[in-house]
Amino acid sequence: MARRIELQGIVHDVLVAFISRNNDLNGYWALGQLRTWMEDEGAGTFEIPLVGESLAAINSKTFPISQRFAAMLQVLMKSQNLPSERVQDARFTVELAAFDRFNCSLRVVSELGRSFEFSRILLVRRHDPRRESRRAAAAARP
Q1: What is the rounded CA–CA span in Å between residue 138 and residue 142?
Q2: Cβ(28)–Cβ(21) under 8 Å?
Q3: Confidence of residue 124 (pLDDT cuts 50, 70, 90)
C-alpha cells in the first residue's frame, strides 16, 4: 500500500491538467469560461469540489469540470494503490489575483487531516468565442 505522501504528486498532476490549455469545456478553454462566469457574477473566488457531499450541490456550469477531475483524481490514486477513503476533501480554488491573473490551487485533505496543496498563478483572459478557435473534436459533437 502506498503512503499518503504520494498525494503530493497527485495534487500537482491534477492541478497541471486543470490549468492546461487542453482543459476544455464545450470546445473552449475552461478557465477562460470560468473567468467570464466569475466576472458576470461578481465573484472574486470560486471553489470546485472533487469529493464529498458538496458534489451534489455543485454549480451546473462547472459540473463537467468537477466530474472530469474527480475521475482523474480517483484514477491517479488507484494507480498509486491509494484507496479513495484516504481523501476526506479535495477542491480547486480559483481566485482573481490581479487584473488578468488567476490564482488556481488544488487542496486535498487526507482522512488524518493532513493537507496537500499546490497552486499556480497564470494569465487568464475572458472567454471570447470571436477571438478563440474552437476545438475540432467539440465542434463535431451533435
Answers
A1: 9
A2: no
A3: confident
Q: In 49-129, which ranges are continuous DSSP H helix?
A: 63-79
User: Phi/psi at 52 (nearest 5 deg)?
Assistant: 90, -175
Q: What is the pTM of this model?
A: 0.84
Inter-residue contact 57 to 69 (CB < 8 Å): no
The bridge status of strand 24-25 relative to strand 87-98 is: unpaired
Residues 58-101 have pLDDT tens digits of: 667 778 888 899 999 999 999 998 998 889 999 999 998 888 89
What is residue 64's three-state secondary structure?
Answer: helix
Sign of CA dihedral 130, 44, 114, 62: negative
Q: Is 123 helix (H, G, I), strand (E, B) or coil?
A: strand
Place of cell 497564470: 122
Rounded Cα–Cα distance for residues 134 and 142 (Å): 14
CA distance 140 to 142: 6
Nearest-CA neighbor of 16 among 122, 95, 132, 125?
122
What's the chain's Rg over C-alpha atoms? 16
